[in-house]
């Protein structure tokens, strides 16, 4: 059973007495806490080492680059540090951290006098392209008396130029200005490199840090020591701009705001900040015209190509965003508990922002696109076998979004630019989606053909959009022909688990292709085409059951590869049969695997296969979704336990050692990847 974990850290010892800093966690202590996580470039985290303490720690980009972000608060003239590591002031006592699907909520005790609640809200608008198109997050800070008295409270926050460049030697420029309701700082690299990155951080675009223009507001732009010391000494800022533009690391320019909250009593006094990035063009894409063309940020169509309009609208939308997020949080929590208990809710609610944080929304309202970044593994764009494990959260929240993910892949390949007869692996390196005119993408032919057919049918079934199947039928049938050639006896090739290397006759890969053929049979029927695929799929399945199953054991199970009776693996690809409601794979196969998994489970997971003790959290939830009740509960409990216990300290990894809970020894370190959307596998199944 789940219960909040209490972490206690002895912060100081004096005269034999301990000063204790304690924080509770709800629903669990995560590996890292999402702060502002909405797109690949607005993607900041608090690393938990092992505790998730915001005071005296720097927020970081998913790469671990420090993102200078300092929070201070003055109570009755005494200054305390509630975020960041630059301050020499006393650190507040963090009482609690709670995460939901859209929020990370910290509560701090300030000198026993005031409770400060800071909420990092990164809303997810799966049903609203206009709102989802903005690369901004909210930060709400609320103060109220903790002792029944009235206290003078001043609140401070700044961000540094580190947000604008992964190359700290780059020069930046900045300005302070106002709209009718906002004060804002804006800063950007002097040398804008459109579609460029340094250390995975965008080399183009304009950053905005905003807050409301209330009467107690002061502000300042200058070096970190000057601005922060100004607040620490005077509890207000100077309303001045240091106009010496310089490199990010040259006297570290910071952009600060301070709010005088006045006399704070028993009622909450709230101030709101927003932080985000505006880019005119977001992706360079070779689509149906075969030429690399600019894809505008989708925000432009909704906000008249006007930065000030966009930042005003986002700030002004806070009440709606907060209410919408509360409803979404409630829905996901309730649906998750119903499907898999509180342990399952602790998993799904941690993965929502991470999943959407890899997506960039571009195009126009009449032709929207969603481009996905394969964060941390190799930064590919539109990787088919990364979209596939992330697909459950998309189907659960709004299946229409699936089309906007698939469209770039169809357009690039239907242009004739891709020469191979199988489906393309990806479209290049984010944010440049140029495709592979030479056909030299990472070769996963069977994997990607199966994925594309399955995902396209899943989209059409959930939305009723059979015209999409008709439109793409020629290339879908081309990929299905490849499945006929290679599914039953897969050649030596990579699967999505490419870190494990190539292997011939992969049992799990074969069943994906065979299910793909059965899915193509349904596509043919839905589009009034002749069905040449269903009978082949039926025949292949019968052969596969002979080749794939080891019956010479007390607990029969499928092997990793045909004939290797000393092997086994997670047969997660049978999930697609249930997702599409095909009723194709024998229920006895599902039951057999479910029973077997209990016999091979390690401390934190069932291993992916016998080549390592490594596992994948997304595939484990695919397996849980189609397992029997006891095995489903076992797999969910092991992953939930891992979330609380793991020694990994970055944005949730999907690849870890099933025995130690750490990153795989001598293996890749995956972090912040959107594949964690696969944890919604239970919720994506048809009701």
TrEMBL record:
Pfam families: DUF5127, GtaA_6_Hairpin. Residues 1-22 form the signal peptide. Keywords: Signal. This is Glutaminase GtaA. Transmembrane segments: none annotated. Residues 102-335 form the Glutaminase A N-terminal domain. It comes from Pseudoneurospora amorphoporcata. It comes from the Eukaryota. Residues 341-683 form the Glutaminase A central domain. GO terms for biological process: carbohydrate metabolic process.
